[in-house]
Specification:
Length: 644
């Protein structure tokens, strides 16, 4: 009897964790995803999660557009409208575009620099799980209305102060309930994720490049990742301080933004936009890097002016710190400050223009092959150029005075971030999808996706520019008939639903393509950079042998040489595709999978919940519980074997 009991003893925690790591290392089952530290899998999880949030943000946008489609509509009330546009903006910026960029960073940076993983694989996993828990925590605010279940009674508990959170709109006087608290704590949690990723990619790029890959042999996308990561680690602390001040005001009677007690709401605006304008380039620089990789491949020629594209990207990142107050021309800063920031804003358009002309120079005279990735890249250039020109209009103080708080500003912002960032990111998805799935996305569905999205985008946001010039204020939930706004709002709503149709076409494309049995080799586009030198999908170890890099676009140079006329001539028929590495890699040591980054990521959510409901004696203990959870996760993570 005693022997049977002994034989049925439960395994220790250490043994259980070891079994999870071993199961995850085989790349099978649920644990292989939960405990993974493989940068490729983490990138796929980042992308899939961000796309789900994209659908959530899209539904919010459609409800907003339905409400504004005709005068005096009553689909949602003004309070619900405020909460919807607050969460739409927050979701699209912090839960969609930023993590989609992080997905590309994870998927591509180690492959492009010839590394087997990022510098800190467990920190990478921690970054993803913090993003997921922070995003779910913030979205859960919809279900925290004043009595339990209030969401279903028509009273949303989501934040209602706008994605920019202007004081004093976010004070308890004007925003009761817990929505703003969820928003502020959610952004703090997401900031931890961004900072962890930023430091990780900086160290990876600086320390883990393949032999011979000097800085000026790196792909432009890697340069833009580096610039974006530096922006993140310098910008996030600023918004972190501002959010702590906001939470002190709301939860503990602080007076940072209270005029009656000697505070100033302008302090919030300065801190938010000192973070917020570098944030715009955190969102757009990765898309610029993606376009800089796609255009040379489909033009079959090197990127025109590679050093200029690199330095203009770095110049944009540097200059983005000196333009924040162009969001504040109407706050009374004075003519000197307004003039200085106006000049700085005009100057930052110069490196942006350099990039645009270099992209056009890349295509000029090239042997262009029109595929969906190229269409999205060209669409990015066209739409971002229009968005940039409207930005120059905003840089001029008298013009901005007229456009301030109108739909012209809404159109400009979406012209840059949807026409810019999202078009570039979709181009990247179509370009690198075969690398990580082994299958090409269907070209007919892809072109349907592009053209419906392109037409829908212009049908949505060009009428908004007209509405702004007609004087329609932003952030209003309804308007009276007879103002001349109804027709243009109906057009914008029709365009929004056309964009929604384009997203459905993309989803169908992915499903149809993944069900296809047709597989592609490692280099279906005849690419130029190192990720195309290995099989598709890449093996766990990436490279069986770490490559030695001898030139920019080194992989292209292994496939082609130029003849006397400057035309590329194949060295080996059909190029290399790396498929001979499929069964290699024995004896390569990879980091052990771990579930502890997920455990550590749960702590901040418990802590935030405890602080929000600190008046509830049942929920207050969540603060120490969360602290202990995070410490246990980090301590166990530190003691785990590096490889097993």
């Amino acid at each position: 009897m005693s022997g049977a009991v002994i034989g049925q003893q439960r395994p220790t925690i250490g043994e259980a964790l070891r079994r999870i790591r071993l199961e995850a290392a085989t790349y099978h089952g649920v644990w292989s995803w939960i405990a993974t530290v493989d940068h490729k899998r983490i990138g796929l999880m980042y992308g899939a999660t961000a796309f789900v949030f994209f659908l959530v943000g899209g539904v919010e946008a459609l409800i907003i557009r339905l409400q504004l489609a005709r005068p005096d509509a009553s689909l949602v009330d003004p309070d619900q409208f405020n909460r919807l546009f607050t969460m739409h903006g927050t979701t699209m910026v912090f839960l969609v575009v930023m993590p989609l960029s992080a997905a590309f960073f994870n998927l591509l940076v180690p492959l492009m620099i010839g590394a087997r993983d990022v510098a800190f694989p467990r920190l990478n996993a921690f970054s993803y799980w913090v993003f997921l828990t922070g995003g779910l925590f913030m979205t859960a605010s919809f279900f925290t209305g004043n009595p339990a279940g209030a969401f279903f009674e028509g009273h949303l508990g989501a934040p209602d102060g706008g994605w920019f959170g202007y004081a004093p709109l976010t004070s308890t006087q004007f925003s009761q309930g817990t929505g703003i608290d969820f928003w502020a704590f959610g952004l703090l949690i997401l900031g931890v994720s961004s900072m962890a990723g930023g430091f990780n990619f900086i160290v990876t790029i600086i320390n883990m490049r393949a032999p011979g890959m000097t800085l000026f042999r790196m792909p432009v996308f890697v340069w833009m990742t580096l610039a974006t990561s530096f922006l993140i680690i310098f910008a996030m602390p600023i918004i972190t301080v501002a959010l702590f001040q906001l939470l002190f005001d709301r939860l503990f009677g602080g007076v940072f933004f209270s005029v009656a007690d000697g505070g100033t709401p302008l302090l919030w605006q300065h801190m938010f936009w000192l973070f917020g304008h570098p944030e715009v380039y955190i969102l757009i620089l990765p898309a610029m890097g993606i376009v800089s990789e796609i255009l040379p491949t489909f033009s079959r020629k090197p990127l025109f002016g590679y050093p200029f594209v690199v330095f203009s990207g770095l110049a944009i990142a540097f200059m983005s710190w000196g333009v924040w107050a162009h969001h504040m021309y109407t706050t009374g800063l004075g003519t000197t400050a307004n003039a200085a920031f106006g000049v700085a804003t005009i100057l930052i358009s110069v490196p942006t223009g350099i990039k645009i002309f270099n992209w056009l120079g890349t295509m000029w005279g090239g042997s262009i092959k029109i595929n969906t990735p190229l269409l999205f890249s060209v669409g990015f250039i066209a739409m971002f150029t229009i968005g940039g020109l409207t930005g120059v209009m905003h840089s001029m103080v008298p013009s901005d005075y007229q456009q301030q708080d109108t739909y012209f500003v809404v159109a400009h912002f979406h012209q840059v971030l949807v026409g810019g960032a999202l078009f570039g990111l979709f181009g990247g998805i179509y370009y690198w999808f075969p690398k990580f799935s082994g299958r090409l996305l269907n070209e007919k569905w892809g072109q349907l996706h592009f053209w419906t999205m392109f037409v829908g985008f212009n049908l949505t946001f060009q009428p908004m520019m007209i509405l702004g010039l007609l004087g329609m204020p932003r952030r209003i939930s309804s308007y009276s008939d007879g103002l001349g706004w109804g027709f243009w709002n109906m057009m914008a709503t029709a365009g929004a639903f056309l964009i929604a149709f384009s997203v459905v076409a993309f989803i169908v494309n992915v499903v149809v393509s993944m069900r296809s049995r047709e597989r592609v080799g490692g280099d279906p586009w005849d690419g130029r950079t190192l990720e195309w030198a290995i099989p598709s999908p890449p093996p766990a170890y990436n490279f069986a042998t770490i490559p030695t890099v001898k030139a920019l676009d080194d992989f292209w140079n292994t496939k082609y040489v130029e003849n006397e006329a400057g035309i590329p001539v194949p060295v080996v028929a059909d190029g290399a595709n790396g498929d001979d590495e499929e069964d290699a890699g024995h004896g390569i040591h990879l980091p052990s999978p771990s579930v502890l980054p997920l455990i550590a990521a749960l702590g901040p959510v418990f802590i935030a919940t405890g602080f929000i409901y600190h008046g509830n004696p049942w929920l207050l203990p969540l603060i120490p519980v969360g602290a202990v959870t995070t410490l246990v996760g980090l301590y166990g993570w530190a003691l785990e074997p590096v490889t097993e």
